[in-house]
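In response to reviewer comment 3 from the previous cycle, which asked for concrete evidence that the modeling workflow produces usable outputs, we include below a single protein chain processed end to end. The sequence was submitted unchanged, and the resulting structure tokens are shown without manual editing.
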Amino acid sequence: YKKSQVLYGIDLARKNIATTKQAVIVEGYTDVMACHLAGVTTSVATCGTAFGEDHARVLRRFLMDQEQLRGEVIYTFDGDEAGRKAALKAFNLDQSFVAQTFVAVESSGLDPCELRQKSGNDAILALVKSRVPLFEFVIKSTIASFDLNTAEGRVAALRSAAPVVAGIKDVALRPEYTRMLAGWLGADSNTVVQAVGSASNNRGRINVEIDSNKPEKKELHLDTLETSMERECLKLTFQFSDLVKTWFTQLTPDCFSHSKYREIFESISNAEINEISANIAHDATEDDDQRALIAALSVEEFKADVDPRYIDSVFARVLEINTGRTIADLKSQLQRLDPTEQNTEHDRMFQELLSIEEFRRALREKSLGTS
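The workflow returned the following structure tokens.
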């Protein structure tokens, strides 16, 4: 007697498995009883051990049709970490078997026996009907622990999931799941293709940058176009604080992509608008380089004559760039929503996106002096 070779209930289920080309794998013998009573007469149990190659060999005899594996195998895993590990083990089986494999997870964590006792036979049938492909379950479980609302989270999730997708041996399926992974991450498809390709070649650590319409916050050179506008913004704030009051109150730390400029803004953002000065920023830091930068911003000449139009163009441009980052984040979140199953949230976010895009257009016109 070897647990790795025994499927409880196979004597009762074998005929129906062969006829329907479906096998439902549960954990214990009481789950098998519950499934059969509910009408799922193709269920068998692994008797307390994870489903493995020996179990697969037993089922193959009933699922094979002219040397081809037909039908489907449905696992009823728990939705917890143990269930995820069991799914990963199943993922590593012979992929001619895995490609026909699905996962059904009860959202509240009940096993089939408990589910039937609580909700009746229809709940068991609904559980089996809710199955998703094993590949999808494993990939989604892999990225579920990451914060996909941040660029850093999407990068980490891609690095973790790319080797999983690369492990799909079916050359027709792999591109499909690569495309779906891009959607689940809200990431650029070309970047995901690159990551999966790299994982296929290396099967090791993936070193890629993800273009999710929002780059990671990086330390930028002070002479980039983006940060040059941030510099002008701070110069105007220090040298013409009485003229920038309305604009300054609209700024947030996220408007400054360079950490040095962001620190300076944060040091003065809580001050009364009439009291903002380089002295406040100077006193807020003990870093000599930062103090030298503040001093430079206080006296440095401007790129053009300072008048209301120039002030509008600088602040509007800084706000427009930051609004673009917000739009990129929203588009990434929207890409991850299912418009059918999450239609309320999808519609709300879509309307929010339209509103913010309209705001950005107004800022762009202001920065160009056309409004």
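The radius of gyration is 29 Å. We consider this sufficient to address the reviewer's concern, and the full set will be provided in the supplementary archive.
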